[in-house]
Amino acid sequence: MSDTPNSQFAFVRTEQLPQLAPPSTATGPVAWVRTNLFSNIPYSILTLVALYCIFSILSGFLPWLLNGVWTTSNIRECREVLDGVSGGCFSVLTERWPQLVYGLSYDRNEYWRPRLAFILLFIAAAPVLFVNLPRQMLGFTALYPFVAFYLIWGGTIFAPLMALVAFAVGYKVYSHLVAGSFAAGFFGGVIATAVMLFIGGFIVDVIAPEETFLSAVPSRDMGGFMLNMILGVVCVSLSLPIGIALALGRQSSMPIIKWICVVFIEFIRGVPLITLLFVASVVLSYFFPPGSNFDLILRVIIMITMFSAAYIAEVIRGGLAALPRGQYEAADSLGLDYAQAMRLIILPQALKISIPGIVNVAVGLFKDTTLVSVISMFDLVGMIRGPILSSTDWNGVYWELWAFAILLFFVVCYGISQYSQWLERQLATGHR
Amino acid sequence: MPIGKAHCDPTILSNEAVKYQNGQADGEYHMTSITDPPEGAFRLSMLINDTRYRSYTFQFIALVLLIAIMAFLGINLVRNLTAAGLNISYGFLGEPAGYDVQQTLIEYDSQSSHLRAAWVGIINTLLVAFLACVTATILGVIAGVLRLSPNWLVSKLMSVYVEAFRNVPVLIWILVINTIVILLPAPRAYRGETPDAEMLFGIIAYTNRGIYIPAPTWGAGSGVVVLVFLASIASIFFFRRYARKQLFDHGRVVPVLLPALAMFFIPVLLAYFVMGRPIGVDLPELKGFNFQGGTQIGRPLIALWLALSVYTGAFIAENVRAGIQAVSKGQTEAAASLGLRPNRVMNLVVLPQALRVIIPPLISQFLNITKNSSLAIAVGYADVTATLGGITLNQTGRAIECILLLMLFYLTISLLISAVMNVYNNAVSLKER
Asked: Could you read off the pLDDT of B94-125 as tens digits, one per residue?
């Protein structure tokens, strides 16, 4: 091996050289800028245009934000403080904060109640949103509607207690009968709850004391962002079960039930929400028994719930249709009846597929709660357009108020959509 | 084991069959008769327990419930109406409306009927919906394509646009843009030797009352020019088809661009000058305290139009992005390996497949625009919700009739759009065997 052909060469390197560093234009920030911002002439132009846009937006926005005044009591004082410098009068937010959040006429001394209800909302929603939390927390979630109602509306504690008893009785009847068949349990539970609610109404009327621990707040005093939150949370949670029922009804093989659901869904989806809100404000009371007095917020909740239930039904129908036929056939071949097949096989998968759609509907619904300002309810937008912008103290402070509203809605809606993307990744069991 | 013998072997029969066999003394049995129901033994409990009757029971209950609810609501309605001394009648539509409408496309004054006012509203709704559909599509396509651009800054900027507009209520955007228009200079700012505001390019005036743009004036003989224009558009269309046919049938490439351009410009210009220049331009001019001449696009229309465009544009951008991403990379590579040039790859391979994904959600966005245009009432644009469902309702007190008509209108529009969508979906759906 000594006289290898190598011997005819003067020099042969026996060890490997260390790698040279790549040229400075191929690594580091310079390369990143070159590939991502200035890769060719059209992109360079686009980058410059984008930079100019960002610069012009920020040059107007930043001084306005940073020079902002937070502590004056009206617009004239604010303009004096600013003294010609460009800056925002954010003091409108600090001064009108209670109105923006709680509306015009909610009692100042009772603000702790909606605040507490708001904090408890997170505790109640947590076990629903995050599956790995202890399941015992769901007990509080079940209690939450009654607690929140009592906190926000106040009045006699017997009303929510009676409702709680009615639902407990309904649940007992359901769990007793469900062993026989799901339909019997379901309808038995519903009927028992309705009967108990009816009886409870009389009992509460009799035993309700004059003086109550928490003073009663009439619905018309609800306002501000609180009203948006109430409408959003209540309507989304109510419309989910109704939407599932409508979707199943639309898939049903029974023609009458199918057509009832189809007509309902297509009618609701075909008209704008605002016409339904008009119905709530001027027409719906014609359809209630004479003398009955449903307040506006309840009528609006009914209409918005119907509205979002129709949309959720369509989303879930998409989920049901996306399931392969084999799943339905497998459930049948296991000998499951309709209710069991739906509860154990079909719906868990269909709902998982529909999560992004349901969240989209929920976000859309939450945004649409601002429409109630058109039928003169004072939600966040209604408060800004009405009492605050027309007051002499703050007449002309547009941008601060709108920026606040935009920020508030953006934070909530963006948060929800980020949560749904996280949940989708959590639930993804498919093979990738 | 021969199949024929199976029937004689009792060990492989199911239990029921064995019982059946034992019960029947003659031993003559059929497998099929086992599942047959016992004859003539209908019991009431079978309405719930027997799957053949259960669906009828449920449907009957549903129907009875539906009728009961309808009757309950109907009786309440009749009682409430008689108590209030009202009735259901559409006679009010013929009465004079008695209110003015700012922006109308058809002839209307305060003496016109409520029906006429409703028509004005319907046409205004369709106008703003059409304008917003066009601009939202343009915006959405640009933003959706740019969001996929390899340029980091631009794609991030577009994500900010999409997220910001998707996550904030459209009502707030309408009111914000309305505020922007309110804060534009008043017409009087254009007056004097050194005006505070100047017209854009000297022909477009933007004021807090709206934007004034030049309007065409139609003189005698302008009809001929328009006809020639339409005819040249049609002939360009037919010429393209001819060129395509030549390419496919005979493999001859017929140049299209230059002849098409010539066909577009030359006949119209010829007709224009032959007819003695019948079409002129009416420029907006400041007269007194306001602008005269030209076309005024009112403040509410601008607010509604722009807000609906940017809001829906953000949604369309997401649809476009999803559609382009749905076309797999293999398609592009396959097309390239066939030797197609990049623009052909885009036109012949990627776009047709992406459009199949993009168009259905796009059409439902158009439907959303039409429905969201009902928010016009928040800025005072006279759409159908504001005329029929707003002023007419308040003046006549005919709430039920007005809202019924309003819903009927929107329902018709949305059913029409769904029908169009179904036709399209059927046309482009993959033909599977």
From this structure: 888 778 787 777 888 878 888 888 888 899 99
Q: Are A256 and B63 an interchain contact pair (Cβ–Cβ within 8 Å)?
A: yes
* Per-residue pLDDT reduced to its tens digit, B323-377: 988 888 899 899 999 999 888 888 888 888 888 888 888 988 999 999 999 998 8
Helix (H) or strand (E) run with residue B266 in it: helix B257-274
Q: How far is B135 from chain A, CA to nearest CA, in Å?
A: 20
Smallest Cβ distance to B62: which of A260, A398, A405?
A260
Within 10 angstroms of residue B285's Cβ, the number of other Cβ atoms is: 13
- Residue B121 has a CB neighbour count (10 Å cut-off) of 27
Q: How far is B80 from chain A, CA to nearest CA, in Å? A: 6
Best A286, A366, A375, A421 member to test B by mutation, with max B CBs in 10 Å, is A286
Beta strands in A170-296 (DSSP E): none
Structure confidence at residue A42 (pLDDT)? 83
Chain B contacts of A285, Cβ < 8 Å? Answer: 80
Query: Cα separation of A160 and A208, whole Å?
Result: 12
CB A363 within 8 A of CB A413: yes
Contact yes or no for A370 and B179 at CB 8 A:
no
Residue B207, helix vs strand vs coil: strand
d(CA B34, CA B24): 12
Strand-strand pairing, B285-287 and B205-207: unpaired
> Which region, left, alpha or beta, applies to residue B231 given φ > 0 means left and ψ of -120 to 50 means alpha?
alpha
Closest CA to A282 of B413, B406, B67: B406
| H or E element, residue A151 | helix A137-153
pLDDT tens digits along B134-192? 999 999 999 998 888 888 888 999 999 999 999 999 999 999 999 888 888 777 777 76
Nearest CB neighbour to A270, from listed B63, B179, B414: B414
| Interface predicted TM-score (ipTM) over 0.85 | yes
Residue that the structure tokens 């940017």 belong to: B310
Q: Which helix (H) or strand (E) holds B213?
A: strand B210-213
Burial (0-12, 13-18, 19+ Cβ within 10 Å), B237: exposed
Q: How many residues does chain A have?
A: 432
What are the Cα distances from residue B334, in Å, to B287, B329, B344, B350?
64, 9, 12, 11
